[in-house]
Amino acid sequence: MAFEVNGNTAGVVAVAIPVVGSIALFSFLAVASWADARRKEREAYYNSEAVKKIAESSSEGAKSALELLREKEKNAFRRRLEGLKLGGLITTAVGLGVMVLLRGIVEPGDGPVYLVGVIPLLIGAALLVYVFALGPKQAE
After folding, report:
1. Apex CA 138: angle with CA 136 and CA 140, to 5°?
2. Host domain of residue 43
3. pLDDT at position 6
4. Would you give the distance in Å from CA 32 to the centre of its chain?
5. Number of domains the chain is built from
6. 88 Cβ neighbours under 8 A, 6+ residues apart
């Protein structure tokens, strides 16, 4: 027996598919987020235990443990800056692309609609200015 809305089974299916799809999507996102948090927690625990064992072994072990921590911190800092650089470049390129696209689509008498592309362009420029001029510099 199929569900019917005013004698229309297709209408129920058309409503049910997006509902079931959104429930499945958000359930997946919740489980993926939980699994990622759990993985990060395990990594942090194992790293801290390894550093403790190295530090307790000898004075040279403590030096190497500190060097390991410094190196991880430098790598995390470098990855964050590279991510900001990439984000700035992509956002700037999107702004330029939107400007070119809207310039080609819009009729000449409609006004400067293509200037909407300035918004992502300026956001990307702000990210790049922060990374190269204003952001913290890593001490070598």
Report:
1. 155
2. 10-57
3. 61
4. 15
5. 2
6. 124, 125, 126, 127, 128, 130, 131
